[in-house]
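Pasting as-is:
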Amino acid sequence: MNLMKKPVSTIQIKKLLDPILILFFAIYAVIFSLGRWGGSKPVLLIDPSGDAGALLSYAAALDHPQFFANDQILNPQNQMFSYNGIYLPFIRFAGSAVGDYGLGFLILLPVCIFLQLTSFYLFGKAIFHNRFWAVLLSAISAVPIVYGFWDSCGLAYDPLPRFLFQSIFPF
């Protein structure tokens, strides 16, 4: 008689915990993003003076150069117009697909949130070998912390490149 044998139901429940937690992260990411968006079209909640506004302006200038012909910075013919990261092609594609650069930009928000929560959870499981500490690491990494004047870490309201990079950092 083996006293160490666990009931089948306990083993099955433990196998389901990871997919349930990851599903919870996905649902949270969607709910958070819908709350951030608020249903407005066009998306009016993006700060035009910040990094998000700059990314959207660059995308608009690439798609509609005739409107930026006299702009010293956003004129695509200008040598200063050299910012072309992975975000710009995505914003341009998503913006044209949904008809709004702001909404196209916010489509990245649930992806960033899901990656942030999931990657830190999986990282925590790998280093702690304990689900509780992994969930705690994921939750702590999600807390927004503002340091300096314009920089922060944790969950953000805009899917800026630094948010995506911090989200995939544990991978």
